[in-house]
């Protein structure tokens, strides 16, 4: 911070120096502001913080310094001086205000986005209507509004207000026309025709079709719900359709990805608004997309943005090599697994009975806790309450089975949401939150795991026997067992080691990722990526693919049981609530590679339908070649067939809007209907502009939702009614124009708000002690000395500078001069070639300002230690310092300002009183606006500057060689950089460091002649020249005075430091 | 008011060529004594000092000191428009916003004038102390140019050590080392310009960046001889005398062994 506006004054006497000129200088680097800067500045285009931004920032800057052969000494802030604390408190208040503003902005932003979306839809509707006024086919599909409405994520939300029921019919027809004109019969869409369309449109069309389809299906289901067998047949049919449809869509998506990535194998794994994460499965593209890509089951796929859930965390982007390898490993594993599944499957399923029991057990209780609310929630949305609730008791098993599939996701989401929320809260409060809470979760989990080790044992043995029976060498078996527990442990360790980091990241990603939903998926994904990695390594060690295949399977079993036990425990003792076990659960599934996971699910489905083998076979079949998602779907289908339960459609609602339901599950314990509503809106928001809003509180969504609806409605109403009866084109055109205008407005609004959001979000973060520790670790690896100042870093820097321990201070803080620094380098990291160099000697010469003068300026302008005189800017300040020299002068100044306005007197008198009156005359009008603090000129503040609490050690600094090996590891850990990248970055740095010769500068040989500072303000120039003149005129006298002034502080220093020590 | 008429316009070209690699902008100081320029490169390692004395001009008028801040890159472009035989006239006001360049062809059949905007450049005038150099080497400028070029092919830094016996240039690079010794030959029958002379009161040895030396040799066309002046632990001066006009001098700070690093390594 420094003294406000002081840089403006000092700038004219700054010099632009080549960066090279810094070579071999010892510079004290004030790193205290860096962290704040990094947190504020290192953000992506959406204003979210980058991962490990602080370390990365440090890394870059250190590299730059070392490359330029600077010998830096980093100085960190220690304790905050009492004075500063007061000022900081004021600042914090400001920050809190900012937090509030942030929230408001986010809300506004959401509102605008919704508005925009609504308008766009309305526009599209009008356009289509304009072209083709007869939207006949909507009538071709008689959809009861009650059911289809909730399918449409956007409309119902807008329409849910009072007049909802009445105008739904119109709305719907409007909707249908608004999107795309689709043929009545979905299946009649000729794929070849479709394929001629651009992929994006294809996808859109397909999605529309799917949407319609779902609503249609719902209706059919409804009708068939009385006859269970019919119902299940119907379901099977629809599923098959859905599957093929989805495949098509996947194909298109792949195509699109291929187009985007330029390579055919890319798979979009997550996306934000203007960013995509593409996973390229290089090793085995024919097989499933890796064990990590399976979270999305078939039914979920219908839910839309499945790509969001597929595969690895977005980090993939910058973490390619190592992770990629790990993934390759796990993929192979998965593949092998599939091949071997056949061999093992039947035996397994027979031995898995107790598992089935276990899962029944769990689902039973967890059903009550968690599933029910969802039911309610969805019921509230669409009036199908009776069915849902009737179904619930009868087919709870089935649903429980389905539910299991969601389990991990659910809790993943829950976790994610929590993380998201936390990180949201972080911004408002303290950043320590997430890691703390998560560690708890981890510990909980670990504890459970430990306690379950025993129960795992028998299962393993069983498995081993199975394996033997089939074909495997016995020798491997114990290894396997060891392997498993090992890998578990290793995994735990890994988690342990990285959890803080990862969770931190998780938090970040939660914000970054789309809405709360995918945000949930991400932290969950963090772990598997390290899990399989570990496992992959171990497996490689055994070098038996067969083993590879089996190990997961066995683990699978063990873990399945594990899960169940844990569930039991979780609900019985530990968590007490669903949420409690939820936390555990959310983490647990993560421990398994995804492939295993799905299999567990599959098995469960099988068991629960008491037809394990039947299910197992199709599962096998599909597992051989295809997407695991497919398997999932098929398995599910199978299950559906076997147990003719209408309630099997219970997961249906979630299939459309998993996200929403998950959200609602989180939130709706009490207020179901509202929460569900909110959740849907939230989910939609998540899809649309989630990245911007992060996992916003549901309430926000709701509030906005309610607020939004009235606005959206008028825009849409006309179109809703008109197209039904031969529309008047002119009207609609006029309408369109209005809407276009409106849309433009909204667009502008959004832009503005996004800007504001970015701006505010920047300053809502605060560096933590961990961050400091990480940066210090980095410094140590680089061999750079650092000190933690007793109090202010810039004061310490200034001292080092004054004592000649360093040649200069690198800081953006103008305080440094006040603390006695002699040369300050500013903006060292801004430009590429130049650095601004300020020397106290120049300041004294050009501006005729001594350190004492600067302190006086600080008193007037406000700094870290004082609020300053309100209303006084740099120009006035320099004039005041000029007119009222010295501390006594400032006292006089105060008297004058606080004196009764006697302007009249002055104006009558000629300005005779040695110029002072001239200033007084000129400023008498403004002075009443000046608000002088009561303790002005505060002796304390001056004291703080004159003798700050610093480390008086005069030991010289030593620099070490950067440790390349360490740095490689560090970068790999923190930034997931591959070795080559780090090397590439560091080599020039090391080379520069090692260069033996040193180029001297001419500056050290020749002296500069007089330079003339250029002032921006004429008034400053005048005041400065007066100051100079006065000092020159008074000659020796004045010099003597100045010397005293300079002498004084050093005398007081001793006293002051003692005082400081006492504090 | 400043006005100067130079018969050999080509000279101006050569002068600009000699500095354009090192600086991009500079203040030409017009004074009654002549036109001068002093500027450091951006890294403050080298300094250019040019003096074109008023006597060298056919016509020279300068009432007071006028700093003419010019962008060298643009100035070079402009001077390119002049033929090498052209007569160049430079004109500007006391506080110039523009400087006028007038090119007259030798046969007086073509006159072109250009106006160039001036710029405000932070004046960083160095006080170069008048130094008595303990070692002065005078050698043919072409020889020096060639030598520097050869050296630069091998290493980054040249070590110049001057003894009574001669001047030894040596460099070390990745591929190996190179040494070139130039012996004084005052008694030879070569023309004065081709002689190498060494005046020495004390042996000197110092290392310099070849990158800079090579850009100094761009001034070779200005003078047949070059003079190197050295003092232990001080910048080297490389001077090209412009006949009847003045000089172009380059100062270059030495490179030193980095003891601290050397110890650590």
Automatic annotation (TrEMBL), chain A:
Compositionally biased spans, kind Gly residues: 572-585
Low complexity: compositionally biased ranges: 640-655
Keywords from the named record: DNA damage, DNA repair, Endonuclease, Hydrolase, Magnesium, Metal-binding, Nuclease, Nucleus
Basic and acidic residues biased stretches: 330-350, 418-429, 437-468, 523-569, 621-639, 696-710
Segments of this protein annotated with the region Disordered: 127-167, 283-737, 1026-1063
N-terminal signal peptide: none
Pfam short name (any one): XPG_I
A Gene Ontology biological process term: nucleotide-excision repair
Annotated compartments: Nucleus
Ranges of compositional bias, category Acidic residues: 481-495, 665-675, 1034-1046
Recorded superkingdom: Eukaryota
XPG-I domain location: 780-849
Basic residues biased stretches: 1052-1063
UniProt GO cellular component terms: nucleus
Chief location bin: nucleus
Domain XPG N-terminal intervals: 1-98
Molecular function in Gene Ontology: DNA endonuclease activity; hydrolase activity, acting on ester bonds; metal ion binding; single-stranded DNA binding
SUPFAM superfamilies per record: 5' to 3' exonuclease, C-terminal subdomain, PIN domain-like
Residue ranges with Polar residues bias: 283-294, 721-735
Cofactor annotation: Mg(2+)
Family, per entry: Belongs to the XPG/RAD2 endonuclease family. XPG subfamily.
Protein name, per record: XPG/Rad2 endonuclease
From TrEMBL, chain B:
GO MF annotations, alphabetized: DNA binding; DNA polymerase processivity factor activity
Pfam families: PCNA_C (PF02747), PCNA_N (PF00705)
Main location: nucleus
Domain named Proliferating cell nuclear antigen PCNA C-terminal: residues: 128-255
Single biological process term from Gene Ontology: regulation of DNA replication
Gene3D superfamilies in UniProt: 3.70.10.10
InterPro entries: DNA_clamp_sf, Pr_cel_nuc_antig, Pr_cel_nuc_antig_C, Pr_cel_nuc_antig_CS, Pr_cel_nuc_antig_N
Annotated ranges, domain Proliferating cell nuclear antigen PCNA N-terminal: 1-124
Annotated localization: Nucleus
Protein family: Belongs to the PCNA family.
Role summary: This protein is an auxiliary protein of DNA polymerase delta and is involved in the control of eukaryotic DNA replication by increasing the polymerase's processivity during elongation of the leading strand.
Name this protein carries in UniProt: DNA sliding clamp PCNA
């Amino acid at each position: 911070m420094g003294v406000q506006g002081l840089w403006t004054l000092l700038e004219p006497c700054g010099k632009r120096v080549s960066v090279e000129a810094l070579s071999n200088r010892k510079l004290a680097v004030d790193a205290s502001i860096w962290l704040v800067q990094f947190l504020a500045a290192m953000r992506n285009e959406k204003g979210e913080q980058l991962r490990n931004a602080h370390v990365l920032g440090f890394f870059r800057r250190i590299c730059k310094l070392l490359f330029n052969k600077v010998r830096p000494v980093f100085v960190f802030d220690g304790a905050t001086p009492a004075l500063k604390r007061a000022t900081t408190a004021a600042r914090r208040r400001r920050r809190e205000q900012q937090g509030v503003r942030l929230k408001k902005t986010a809300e506004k932003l959401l509102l605008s986005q919704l508005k925009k979306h609504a308008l766009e839809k309305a526009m599209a509707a009008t356009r289509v209507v304009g072209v083709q006024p007869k939207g006949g086919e909507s009538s071709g599909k008689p959809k009861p509004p009650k059911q289809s409405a909730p399918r449409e994520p956007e409309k119902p939300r807008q329409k849910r207000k009072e007049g909802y029921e009445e105008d739904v019919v119109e709305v719907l027809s409007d909707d249908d026309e608004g999107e795309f004109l689709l043929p009545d019969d979905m299946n009649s869409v000729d794929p070849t025709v479709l394929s001629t369309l651009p992929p994006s449109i294809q996808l859109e069309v397909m999605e529309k079709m799917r949407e319609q389809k779902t609503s249609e299906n719902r209706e059919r289901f409804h009708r068939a719900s009385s006859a269970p067998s019919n119902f299940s047949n119907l379901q099977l049919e629809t599923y098959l359709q859905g599957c093929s449809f989805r495949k098509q869509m996947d194909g298109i998506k792949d195509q699109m990805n291929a187009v985007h990535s330029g390579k055919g194998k890319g798979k979009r794994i997550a996306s934000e608004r203007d960013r995509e994460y593409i996973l390229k499965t290089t090793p085995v593209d024919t097989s499933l997309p890796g064990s990590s890509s399976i979270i999305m089951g078939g039914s979920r796929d219908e839910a839309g943005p499945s790509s969001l859930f597929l595969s690895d965390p977005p980090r993939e982007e910058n973490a390619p090599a190592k992770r990629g390898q790990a993934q390759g490993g796990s993929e192979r594993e998965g593949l092998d697994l599939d091949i071997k599944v056949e061999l093992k499957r039947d035996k397994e399923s027979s031995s898995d009975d107790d598992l089935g029991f276990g899962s029944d057990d769990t689902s039973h209780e967890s059903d009550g806790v968690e599933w029910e609310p969802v039911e309610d929630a969805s019921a509230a949305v669409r009036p199908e309450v009776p069915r849902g609730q009737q179904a619930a008791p009868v087919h709870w098993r089935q649903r429980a089975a389905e539910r299991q599939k969601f389990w991990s996701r659910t809790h993943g989401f829950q976790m994610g949401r929590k993380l998201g929320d936390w990180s949201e809260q972080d911004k408002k409060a303290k950043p320590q939150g997430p890691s703390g809470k998560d560690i708890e979760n981890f510990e909980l989990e670990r504890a459970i795991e430990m306690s379950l080790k025993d129960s795992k044992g028998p299962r393993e043995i069983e498995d081993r026997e199975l394996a033997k029976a089939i074909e495997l060498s016995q020798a491997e078996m114990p290894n396997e067992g060891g392997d498993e527990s090992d890998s578990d442990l290793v995994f735990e360790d890994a988690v342990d080691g990285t959890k803080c980091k990862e969770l931190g990241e998780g938090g970040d990603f939660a914000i970054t990722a789309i809405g709360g939903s995918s945000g949930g998926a991400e932290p969950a994904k963090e772990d598997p990526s390290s899990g399989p990695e570990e496992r992959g390594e171990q497996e490689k060690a055994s070098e038996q693919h067969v083993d590879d295949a089996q190990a997961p399977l066995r683990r699978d079993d063990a873990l399945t049981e594990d899960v169940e036990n844990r569930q039991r425990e979780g609900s019985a003792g530990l968590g007490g609530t669903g949420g409690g076990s939820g936390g555990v659960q959310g983490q647990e599934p993560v421990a398994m590679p995804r492939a295993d996971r799905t299999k567990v699910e599959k098995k469960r489905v099988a068991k629960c339908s008491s037809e394990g083998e039947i299910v197992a076979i199709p599962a096998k079949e599909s597992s051989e070649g295809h997407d695991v998602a497919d398997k999932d779907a098929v398995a599910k289908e199978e299950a559906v067939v076997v147990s003719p339960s209408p309630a099997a459609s219970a997961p249906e609602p979630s299939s459309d809007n998993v996200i929403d339901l998950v959200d609602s599950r989180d939130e709706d314990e009490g207020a179901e209907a509202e929460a569900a509503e909110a959740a849907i809106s939230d989910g939609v928001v998540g899809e649309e502009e989630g990245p911007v809003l992060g996992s916003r509180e549901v309430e926000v969504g709701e509030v906005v939702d309610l607020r939004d609806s009235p606005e959206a409605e008028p825009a849409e109403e006309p179109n809703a009614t008109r197209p039904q009866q031969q529309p008047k084109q002119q009207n609609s055109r006029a309408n369109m124009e209005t809407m276009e205008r409106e849309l433009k407005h909204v667009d502008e609004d959004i832009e503005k708000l996004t800007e504001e959001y970015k701006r505010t979000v920047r300053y809502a973060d605060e560096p933590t002690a961990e961050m400091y520790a990480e940066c210090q670790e980095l410094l140590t690896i680089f061999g750079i000395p650092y000190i933690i100042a007793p109090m202010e870093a810039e004061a310490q820097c200034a001292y080092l500078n004054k004592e000649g321990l360093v040649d200069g201070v690198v800081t953006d803080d103008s305080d440094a001069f006040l603390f006695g620094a002699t040369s300050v380098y500013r903006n060292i990291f801004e430009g590429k070639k130049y650095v601004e160099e300020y020397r106290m000697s120049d300041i004294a010469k050009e501006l005729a300002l001594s350190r004492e003068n600067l302190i006086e300026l600080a008193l007037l302008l406000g700094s870290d230690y004082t609020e300053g005189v309100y209303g006084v800017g740099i120009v006035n300040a320099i004039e005041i310092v000029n007119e009222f020299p010295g501390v006594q002068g400032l006292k006089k100044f105060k008297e004058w300002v606080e004196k009764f306005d006697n302007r009249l007197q002055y104006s009558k008198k000629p300005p005779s009183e040695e110029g002072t009156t001239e200033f007084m005359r000129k400023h008498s009008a403004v002075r009443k606006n000046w608000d002088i603090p009561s303790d002005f000129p505060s002796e304390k503040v001056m004291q703080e500057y004159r003798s700050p609490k610093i480390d008086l050690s005069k030991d010289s600094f030593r620099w070490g060689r950067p440790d390349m090996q360490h740095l490689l590891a560090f970068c790999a850990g923190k930034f997931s950089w591959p070795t080559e990248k780090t090397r590439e970055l560091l080599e020039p740095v090391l080379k520069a460091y090692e260069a033996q010769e040193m180029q001297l500068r001419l500056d050290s040989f020749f002296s500069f002649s007089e330079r003339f500072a250029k002032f921006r303000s004429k008034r400053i120039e005048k005041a400065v020249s007066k100051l100079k003149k006065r000092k020159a005129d008074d000659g020796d006298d004045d010099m003597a005075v100045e010397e005293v002034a300079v002498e004084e502080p050093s005398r007081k220093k001793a006293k002051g430091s003692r005082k400081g020590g006492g504090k | 008011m400043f006005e100067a008429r130079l018969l050999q316009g080509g000279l101006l070209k050569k002068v600009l060529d000699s500095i354009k690699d090192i600086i991009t902008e500079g203040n030409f100081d017009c004074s009654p004594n002549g036109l001068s320029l002093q500027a450091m490169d951006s890294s403050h390692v080298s300094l250019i000092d040019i003096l074109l004395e008023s006597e060298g001009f056919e016509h020279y008028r300068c009432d007071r000191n006028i700093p003419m801040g010019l962008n060298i890159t643009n100035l070079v472009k402009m001077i390119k428009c002049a033929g090498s035989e052209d007569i160049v006239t430079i004109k500007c006001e006391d506080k110039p916003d523009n400087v006028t360049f007038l090119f007259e062809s030798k046969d007086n059949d073509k006159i072109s004038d250009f106006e160039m905007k001036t710029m405000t450049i932070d004046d960083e005038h160095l006080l170069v102390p008048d130094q008595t150099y303990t070692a002065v080497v005078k050698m043919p400028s072409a020889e020096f140019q060639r030598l520097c070029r050869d050296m630069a092919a091998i290493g980054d830094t040249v070590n110049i050590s001057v003894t009574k016996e001669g001047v030894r240039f040596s460099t070390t690079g990745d591929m190996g080392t190179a040494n070139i010794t130039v012996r004084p030959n005052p008694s030879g029958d070569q023309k004065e310009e081709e002689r190498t002379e060494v005046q020495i009161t004390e042996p000197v040895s110092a290392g310099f960046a070849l990158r800079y030396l090579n850009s100094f040799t761009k001034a070779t066309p200005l003078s047949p001889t070059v003079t190197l002046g050295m003092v232990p632990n001080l910048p080297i001066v490389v001077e090209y005398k412009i006949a009847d006009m003045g000089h172009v001098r380059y100062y270059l700070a030495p490179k030193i062994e980095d003891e601290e690093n050397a110890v650590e390594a």
